[in-house]
Design goal:
This protein is mostly beta strands. The protein has two helices and 14 strands; from the N terminus they run H-E-E-E-E-E-E-E-E-E-E-E-E-E-E-H. It has a 14-stranded antiparallel beta barrel with strand order 1-2-3-4-5-6-7-8-9-10-11-12-13-14. The longest helix has 16 residues. The relative contact order is 0.19.
């Protein structure tokens, strides 16, 4: 068949979006840019001078029932004056008929390679261990035009799977790098089909640097984040730019993230014209404030392709820092010093 119907091409194009948003574990959106790197990199548990609580709520298409949504709650910090960091993540991810709830505990270890706090040089390791409950609601699909479809069970199916993530972080002065391997233990997931691969491994790499002039209240942070899946080869890259302004009560900041999928899809707008190709592209502006020990941030995501499938993502992040007893490091390193 030379030309596919527009609605079929719409479904085909949406597959990369569904795949990245329904991966096992916490979906990788833009939460990490709102002072929440621990959510995607376990080695960040207790890496900074403060213990942190972060609560996020993400929602798409407010006027549509069962629209995609995600809520996360994280807590992480250092155990006393030791090199050990611990944390916990609880999340709820819903996308129409698909749902996922999970809880993970984190153990991290931090090595300060410098002799003092003047020159930050730190290597960190982190391990997440948890359980994920996945669900697929088919309760209203039996009958109608598909009364005998053997794939559809007609029930509200669910299963629990074991989940392990491992990560590493490195800080040197104003530079940082994070690497995380998600779902490193092969685990069968039979809720969708017996033919699905046990390999759910996903890899994340983040790099960034914070620039500022001496005695300036302004600093600037360009960064990138690359993610890829081992089994399918799906991949995407984020280009980010963040600006900070120091104030008497804390800090205000904001920035812009651009995400581009490295996998394309073909489509035709009317089903009769020339077949075109496009790659998923998102722009996500965000803004936040640190007021004493409290943090508030807002993120909006906008898709810029010819075929628009995922506009209207709104995300709010609330945070609280507590228990910090260490002096700040002598560096422009917001993820460590705030």
């Amino acid at each position: 068949m030379r030309y596919l119907k527009p609605y079929l091409l719409l479904i085909l194009f949406s597959l990369p979006i569904i795949s990245f948003s329904q991966e096992r574990g916490v979906p990788v959106y833009y939460d990490y840019l709102t002072d929440n790197y621990y959510l995607i990199h376990p080695s960040m548990a207790g890496a900074g001078i403060n213990n942190k609580i972060r609560l996020t709520a993400r929602r798409q298409w407010f006027d549509i029932e069962d629209a995609p949504s995600l809520e996360t709650l994280t807590i992480n910090g250092r155990i006393g004056e030791s090199n050990i960091g611990v944390g916990a993540i609880i999340y709820n991810d819903n996308n129409g008929r698909f749902s996922q709830q999970g809880a993970m505990a984190t153990f991290a270890y931090h090595l300060l390679l410098s002799r003092d706090r003047v020159d930050l040089n730190q290597l960190s390791f982190g391990l997440n261990v948890g359980v994920v409950q996945e669900g697929l609601d088919e309760s209203d699909l039996i009958g109608g035009t598909n009364p005998n479809d053997p794939i559809i069970t007609g029930g509200n199916n669910s299963e629990s799977v074991f989940n392990v993530d491992f990560g590493m972080s490195y800080f040197f002065l104003d530079f940082y790098a994070h690497f995380t391997a998600k779902n490193i233990v092969p685990t069968p997931r039979r809720i969708f089909t017996e033919l699905e691969s046990e390999n759910q491994r996903q890899y994340l790499l983040s790099l960034g640097y914070v620039f500022s002039q001496y005695n300036s209240d302004w600093s600037f942070e360009p960064s990138i984040m690359f993610q890829t899946k081992e089994e399918t080869g799906e991949s995407a890259i984020d280009g980010n730019f963040k600006v900070y302004r120091e104030l008497d009560f804390g800090q205000i900041w904001g920035g812009l993230s651009y995400r581009r999928s490295l996998d394309g899809a073909e489509f035709t707008e009317d089903g009769l014209g020339t077949i075109e190709s496009q790659k998923l592209q998102h722009f996500s502006p965000f803004v936040g404030i640190n007021f004493n020990k409290f943090m508030f941030a807002y993120t909006y995501t906008h898709q810029v392709n010819a075929l628009i499938l995922s506009n209207g993502f709104h995300q709010i992040t609330l945070g609280y820092n507590f228990g910090g007893s260490k002096e700040p490091y002598h560096c422009n390193c917001p993820a460590i010093n705030y």
